[in-house]
Amino acid sequence: MSAQAISARGQEAELFNDLILSQVRNRVGYLTLNRPAGVNALTLSMVRELHRCLTEWADDPEVLAVVLRGAGEKGFCAGGDVRALCDSHKRHDTVHKNFFREEYQLDLLLHLYRKPVVALMDGFTLGGGMGLAQAAELRVVTERSWLGMPETAIGFFPDVGATYFLSRLPGAIGLYLGITGARLQAADALYCGLADWYVEHDRLAQFEERLDRTDWSPMPLKDIQNILAKLGAQVLPEPPLDRLRPAIDHFFNQPEVSSTIEQLRQVNVADSRDWALRTADEMASRSPLAMAVTREIILFGRQLNLERCFQMELHLANQWFERGDLLEGVRAMLVDKDKRPRWKPAPGPRQLQELFEGL
Fold first, then answer.
1. pLDDT tens sequence across 15-67
2. What global pTM score does this model have?
3. What residues contact residue 305 under an 8 Å CB cut-off, 6+ apart?
4. Which of 123, 183, 125, 129 is nearest to 153 (CA)?
5. 91: part of which helix (H) or strand (E)?
6. Residue 271 — pLDDT band, cuts 50, 70, 90?
7. Is 245 helix (H, G, I), strand (E, B) or coil?
8. From 46's CA, which of 54, 83, 178, 245 has a CA 20 to 30 Å away?
């Protein structure tokens, strides 16, 4: 991989890593995830370069705000490169352990950042992409946005701060999204609080043009919000989640995941039946262990502050290659692609307790 350089102040300067493009224009720092063939999936080197740039800009008076975006047409970021993490575990090296620790440190840095951060969630924004975007102060969706935490489909659990941001969504929506891996589009993201602004894809270039021309006030956040208000909206009509909300709150507040699946299969109400059966089928294909743990950590996350949520996630991630279903999920879904994972059975109370021991 070639190394070019970009200076923090400057126009075009040197890049440490060409998978992260870095530029400052009119006192706005732009960080572009530049791995479009992989939908900008994060690697350890990308995480490190993002952290380096953000740390440098945090103390730079010439940078007033930061914009996070993804290269290519497919999306902002489809998550972490889980195949590489599984390969690391099989090689008995430390890349996978370093990745989780440093990714969570990066997400925490963004949550606590003292300057406005704008995340452009255009296209797929999944898993680790959600970890970056949900830490931003201004989260922008478009008509092309698909947001989700699909981890249980590959035998993992929602992490990157999801135990914090999913647990604080209205009703049982966070449990529904975390357990099933359901993906949301713009109207639903605004409705449940996973996005702040809707801007049409074709107007994102205008957003950056207006940032380039902004005469900054002492309140950069307000300046950016004023631009977004002229280009977009904060509410879209008829979000599907609004109609599904009573059913979600009922079924996903059941005491066990198996109870949720069983009751979904018994739905006879015409306007909910298709959704209920489809959701039950999707859950039946997910890792029972991952879904059970997801339910526990989202409920537990409601009681924890942000830092403790990340600590809980790291505690589980450090055990998951040995005790979870991620290796099997990646094999079945991404490597062999037979889509026939041999999941571990649903855990009992004692097994769940053991996973959380030492927290």
1. 445 999 999 999 999 999 999 999 999 999 999 999 999 999 999 999 999 99
2. 0.93
3. none
4. 183
5. helix 82-91
6. confident
7. helix
8. 178
Q: What residues pair up with 121 in beta bridges, in sequence order? A: 141
Cα torsion 323, 329, 334, 335: sign: positive
Which domains are present in the chain?
A: 20-148+182-231 (3.90.226.10)
Query: Is residue 80 annotated as part of the catalytic site, yes or no?
Result: yes
Spot the catalytic one: 49, 137, 151, 188.
Answer: 151
CA distance 197 to 318: 35
Spatial separation of the C-alpha atoms in residues 68 and 161, rounded to whole Å: 17
Catalytic annotation present for 59:
no
Query: Of the residues 123, 128, 232, 329, which is catalytic?
Result: 128
Q: Could you say which of 81, 107, 122, 159 is catalytic? A: 159
CA-based nearest residue to 160, from 196, 129, 122, 117: 129
Tell me if 34 sits within 8 A of 71, measured CB to CB: yes
Task: Give the residue-averaged pLDDT of 312-339.
Answer: 96
